[in-house]
């Protein structure tokens, strides 16, 4: 895979995210993909990732902006830095109550890519900062 192909794959993934297309995001993933959750556990497989995405779509309305994508020379890894603009729509587990709070937070995602598909996705953001923003 070329650097350009990896960059295009990651761009498609983020475009699907912003289009709120769960299927579009899943189309970028390998069947046995790994999802490392921010400050959480590990999920393996597209079905577990799909369940996560459905949950997130119910609780949050988010759009990513200012996306900067970086790739390794061998095109097997990529990273992206971006700004999340969101609305907290429904209370998520043991997090603060949702009241339609708006927030903006910086985040980053790391990817592994093989045979034209994403095999690992790991997203990081400052959870304490997010909690402070939705708790005011």
DSSP helical segment count? 4
Q: Helix- and strand-based class?
A: alpha+beta
Q: In percent terms, what proportion of residues is strand? A: 35-45%
Strand order of the largest sheet: 2-1-6-5-4-3
CATH names the topology as: Nuclear Transport Factor 2, Chain: A
CA radius of gyration: 15 Å
Helix content, binned percent: 25-40%
Task: Give the termini separation.
Answer: 46 Å
For the sheet with most strands, the description reads: 6 strands, mixed
What CATH first level would be assigned? Alpha Beta
Overall number of domains? 1
Average predicted confidence as pLDDT: 95
Count of β-strands: 6
Shape: globular
Order of helices and strands: HHEEHEEEEH
Low-confidence stretches: none
Supply the CATH architecture: Roll
- Oligomeric status: single chain
């Amino acid at each position: 895979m070329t650097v350009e192909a990896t960059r295009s794959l990651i761009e498609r993934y983020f475009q699907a995210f912003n289009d709120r297309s769960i299927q579009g995001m899943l189309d970028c993933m390998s069947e046995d993909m790994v999802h490392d959750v921010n400050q959480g556990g590990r999920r393996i497989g597209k079905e577990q990732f799909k369940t996560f995405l459905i949950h997130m779509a119910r609780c949050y309305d988010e759009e990513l902006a200012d996306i900067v994508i970086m790739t390794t020379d061998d095109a097997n890894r990529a990273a992206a830095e971006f700004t999340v603009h969101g609305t907290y729509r429904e209370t998520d587990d043991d997090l603060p109550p949702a009241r339609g709070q708006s927030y903006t937070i910086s985040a980053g995602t790391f990817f592994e890519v093989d045979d034209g598909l994403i095999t690992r996705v790991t997203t990081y953001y400052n959870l304490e900062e997010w909690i402070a923003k939705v708790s005011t």
